[in-house]
């Protein structure tokens, strides 16, 4: 009784065990590299409603998928490292489906009033190099899992977490609202000739009022991306090393399906060697192939998008970018066919340089031209040589700039 009902399950699977004192569950890792996931799941079962789950400064081997959803009023405290296993055949066959495209995740996580903190040291290690070598640049290999899927989550905080060598996208957020993710570190870098492709920092779907603050992202694709039905998204004080920058999309992939992205602000962002600062990408208006690697013909809109107070260093393509040309690999372009409407997009108060001659490339669809495209205080951006090219197609009444080609 004086130990607050201390219960020790030392006989749990594979020598991992949980020590529970009241509503606090401490998970202790195995000493033989066996699967620690069952003990972690046990801790969430016991302390996931009004309690605390503590993952100590230990190495946890994750050899099986985890589903910890329906949590409520719980604190998750990670000081150690979670290392995902190398049995790629298992992960490809057993990933938990997102319910979007054919994507899966290694850990499905969600709840209301959840705090998940890592103190700047708690680490997710996806053993990603094995995946980069396996895919060798192939996009969206079936069964390649997202490290962490945050789903059906409200009024919650994720802070001080580190993600290294993610298997695929680092995080996805779906069907969630009022979530703050701050002080997040992401680094997915290949050490072989195979690229770390599709290692997005985070992607949002069907989510509202999501805030990303103080992120550092190094990866091989979108640093932060908003996809279908993402609304009221705020990105602040981020630093990106490589990757593509802040992405709106891709979207419009499913024929006849109406989707939107609305009220997105990215501010005080530093882009170091990224391809773009902020960009928008939609699929063409004609379906070619099938998702996830093909598609097109989707409907909807992206509006009220703001990229401001960016600092750029050696961007490889352009600061501002719109393309409505995304299509199945190798298919005819169809850049003027999309009916997906892009409007009220602002790039403002940006300094630095682009390593090419292009300040902007704005390829809007002839079937639904872009409106309300604005540049403000873009004069301080240097481009290669003397050229400052702003390439435009189907941009109606631009504000603050003149198209040069």
From TrEMBL:
Gene Ontology biological process terms in this record: carbohydrate metabolic process; cell wall organization
Any one Gene Ontology molecular-function term assigned to this protein's record: polygalacturonase activity
Organism superkingdom: Eukaryota
Pfam families, per the entry: Glyco_hydro_28
Keywords carried by this UniProt record: Cell wall biogenesis/degradation, Glycoprotein, Glycosidase, Hydrolase, Secreted, Signal
SUPFAM superfamilies the record matches: Pectin lyase-like
Subcellular location: Secreted
Membrane-spanning intervals of the chain: none
Major localization class: secreted
Gene3D superfamilies: Single-stranded right-handed beta-helix, Pectin lyase-like
GO CC terms, sorted: extracellular region
Position of the signal peptide: 1-15
Family, similarity comment: Belongs to the glycosyl hydrolase 28 family.
Protein name as annotated: Related to exopolygalacturonase
């Amino acid at each position: 009784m004086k130990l607050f009902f201390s219960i020790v399950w030392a006989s749990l699977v594979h020598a991992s065990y949980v020590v529970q004192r009241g509503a606090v569950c401490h998970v202790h890792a195995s000493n033989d590299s066996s699967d620690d996931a069952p003990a972690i799941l046990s801790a969430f079962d016991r302390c996931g409603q009004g309690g605390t789950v503590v993952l100590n400064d230990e190495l946890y081997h994750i050899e099986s998928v985890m589903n910890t959803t329906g949590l409520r009023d719980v604190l998750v405290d990670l000081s150690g490292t979670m290392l995902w296993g190398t049995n790629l055949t298992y992960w490809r066959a057993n990933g938990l489906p997102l319910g979007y495209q054919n994507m899966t995740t290694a850990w499905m996580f969600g709840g209301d009033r959840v705090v998940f903190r890592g103190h700047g040291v708690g680490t997710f290690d996806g053993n990603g190099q094995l995946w980069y070598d396996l895919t060798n640049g192939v996009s969206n290999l079936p069964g390649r899992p997202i490290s962490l899927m945050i789903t059906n989550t409200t009024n919650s905080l994720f802070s001080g977490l580190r993600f290294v060598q993610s298997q695929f996208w680092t995080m996805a957020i779906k069907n969630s609202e009022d979530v703050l993710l701050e002080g997040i570190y992401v680094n997915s870098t290949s050490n072989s000739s195979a690229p770390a492709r599709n290692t997005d920092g985070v992607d949002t779907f069907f989510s509202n009022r999501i805030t990303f603050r103080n992120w550092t992202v190094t990866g091989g694709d979108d640093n932060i991306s908003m996809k279908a039905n993402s609304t009221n998204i705020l990105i602040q004080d981020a630093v990106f090393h490589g990757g593509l920058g802040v992405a709106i999309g891709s979207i419009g992939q499913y024929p006849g399906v109406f989707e939107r992205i609305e009220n997105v602000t990215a501010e005080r962002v530093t882009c170091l060697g990224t391809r773009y600062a902020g960009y928008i990408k939609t699929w063409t208006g004609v379906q070619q192939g099938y998702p996830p690697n093909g598609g097109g013909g989707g409907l909807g809109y992206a509006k009220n998008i703001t990229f401001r107070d960016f600092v750029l260093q050696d961007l490889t393509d352009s600061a501002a970018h719109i393309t409505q040309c995304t299509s199945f690999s190798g298919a005819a372009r169809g850049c003027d066919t999309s009916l997906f409407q892009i409007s009220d997009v602002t790039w403002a108060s940006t300094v630095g340089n682009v390593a090419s001659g292009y300040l902007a490339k704005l390829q809007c669809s002839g079937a639904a031209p872009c409106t309300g495209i604005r540049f403000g205080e873009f004069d301080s951006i240097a481009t290669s040589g003397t050229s400052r090219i702003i390439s435009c197609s189907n941009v109606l009444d631009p504000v603050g700039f003149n198209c040069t080609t």
